[in-house]
Amino acid sequence: MNKDLNDTSEHIEVSVDELDDADIQHVNNPIVGLKPIVKEFLGSVKEVRQENNKFIFTDGAASVEVRVVSDEIIRVRMAPHSVFLDDFSYAVPLLDQKVAVFNFKDEKTYYSVSTNTVTCRINKENFLISFVDNDNNITNEDYLAMHWEENAKFGGYYVYCTKKSDPDESYFGLGDKPTDLNLRGKRLQNWNSDTYSFAKHQDPLYRSIPFFISLKEGNAHGIFLDNTFKTHFDFAQEDPTKLSFWADGGELQYYYIHGPKMMDVVKRYNSITGTHQLPPIWALGYHQCRWSYYPESKVKDLAYQFRSRKIPCDALYLDIDYMDGYRCFTWNKKYFPNPKKMIKELSDDGFKTVVIIDPGIKVDDNYWVFKEGKENKYFCRRSDDYFMEGHVWPGRCQFPDFTNPEVRTWWGGLFKELVEVGVAGVWNDMNEPAVFGSGTFPDDVRHQFDGHRGSHRKAHNVYGMQMVRATYDGLKKIQKNKRPFTITRAGYSGVQRYSCVWTGDNVASWEHLKIGSLQMQRLSMSGLPFAGTDIGGFSGEPTGELFTRWIQLGVFSPFMRAHSAGDTAEREPWSFGKELEDINRKFIELRYKLLPYIYSAFWEHHRYGFPILRPIVMLEQENADNKFREDEFTFGDKILVCPILDEGATSRNVYMPKGNWYDYWTHEMYEGGQEHLIQAPLDSMPIFVKAGSVIPEYPVMQHTNEIEIDELKFQIYYSDCEVNSFQFEDHGDTFGYEQDIYLERKFIVNGDKKSMTIKKSVEGLFNPRYETYDLKFIGLPFKPSKIIIDGVDFKGEIFFDNLKRVRINVSKYFKYIQILK
Ligand code: GLC
């Protein structure tokens, strides 16, 4: 039906064949007669009123609330009949932040709400909303007034927002989409789906992260559509001049997040949705998984193989076969007669044990978990009050309603025995939720939604997040001050507060190696930094070469776990012959050497909200070419990672951002701002360190608990301009850092042709046991004649090698070092 888009007078009412009261936005909406469904648009602004940091505008029928969340974040909500939904969000626990000052103005043609960095303008005549920076540039602008359409089937509304899109505007983010990094020209949706062996461009996958970053003429801002229903994003696909996002129900509620730096947009998104807790340091080691390692003798042999072959490893996983008939929280006593003893032995050998727990609870009146859930009415029910039943691994199952806080507390308590047996981490799977045959729950399943009841249409995308939240909170309570380790497949924005994620059932192919690299970068810039892929590919068989290239990428995956399906050949780092075993060992050892650097990047994320993997476009967003660079990234801000992603390739072109970069292996220096051809035979991988960096290094260890460090190594790379670095350290597995029991060392490196200086300062109360540092200076353009430490001539030995590297041992308390020609 054609409708004049500016004509907002028409209000058409539609019939419903099923009314779901919990999804309806306003109780008085009359539903009569069968009429065509028509989109309704906001009209002109008639009135405005202020309630503290909220400004409510109305066209007489519909209302829009503009809320100042922080100096850089403004939230917009729309209520078609002026009755806003409960202001409740699983994603945003920190709605009101510190706002220095905000202002409201009534101008001739528009109203404005501004902070000291951004202004939201609401056009009086047509209700179009725009955001403007301090230089009066429009950063984001409605193309159409916000609009809606009644949902004839369920009640409630489809809600829409359409913004202008510039021809050169790019879009990034949206979580785990297995597609090009730049989303311009794509239409995507969010509906958590179990997608075994997914294909490139397949959509949707396992997670719903309705947050994206726009980049226009070098300036960025973000939009977070906080709506848990199925959501849709059209990134100028249908019409190159328009960007649209909409939801199949719920409220049109989005956050405008000001930039202009992409890094700041992600940081600000994490400031409202939360950051990761610091993971236990063992979680950053190498993890080995398979569906499934059993019986006990197999698991022990696996452990033995790692230690005897001297391949570092911190965690072994038990997939579903450890359970009795796939009943969660039970053990198959035939395979694992004494789990406590086995786990203790593994632990004595430095292995943590992680077990899988799925949401499907077997219908079995002799099974205590089912009985407790049934008696307490903890399982999800359909609209006719019958329990939601579906088949998963255990056969006929019912499913806890994790959106009910009481159910979450119960679920969290169920982990007590597993923790007592010694289990160190929990892997939540199948929580989209996945059901054999139908895919997931029917739409009419009811959820408590923390008191804001709704159907599965509203709860589907948060089900997995609430499951892993229950798991995380339960473990945290049981383990007291120890950091929980959880991993989840499904999630919604904010899931990073509770868990790390893996990208699900990928495939052992070169294409999937590339997809994995993209997904990790995209997850990182979508606020989920602790992510990894199934190294080697879940289904299918990798060649040895592919597995090794995947291990190399894995070193720089925030979460490094090899995993494979049950019907595949053996898939351990030694499964492809001696030569590849040696290369795989070398790279897993590299992961352990870099652990203090990797751990520091996690701290930076936790404390400041910065992503861990940073695509090149985030580093140099003003360079338009970078919008399409997607096969390299930095880990933290100091290490440039350029994985080899093509079969048979032994070299690749590497683009280095501006500044100087050192080859990690050879220490050769390259000038950035251009591409270089880098050789990378199978036993190598192009990795570069930014000039001026101070990179901490551990000795090679077989697991994170093996060695008490007696001297910390630092590699210090010469730079002719000032560069800041930091390193974080603490106990590695407690929440002591919340009470300042940590140490953050900050370094400033600088140099000229005749000298190099390093300044150090510290923050925090943690005091490591070791007393000295082993400092290696790389890339000095001169042979040093003198080193002065805190004003005193250094008398110790100065090692100077033929690669012009200088090495000294110094007290950890030094504050200032000068190296002179
Ligand atoms: C799902 C998971 C996979 C796991 C398997 C058996 O396919 O994605 O990782 O191994 O279930 O539990």
Automatic annotation (TrEMBL):
Origin species = Pedobacter psychrophilus
Q: Which Gene3D superfamilies match?
A: Glycosidases, glycosyl hydrolase (family 31), Golgi alpha-mannosidase II
Highest taxon of the source?
Bacteria
* Residue stretches making up the Glycosyl hydrolase family 31 C-terminal domain: 609-695
Record flagged with keyword Hydrolase: yes
Pfam families assigned to the protein according to its UniProt record, in alphabetical order: DUF5110 (PF17137), Gal_mutarotas_2 (PF13802), Glyco_hydro_31_2nd (PF01055), Glyco_hydro_31_3rd (PF21365)
Name of the protein in its database record:
Glycosyl hydrolase
Stretches assigned to the Glycoside hydrolase family 31 TIM barrel domain: 277-601
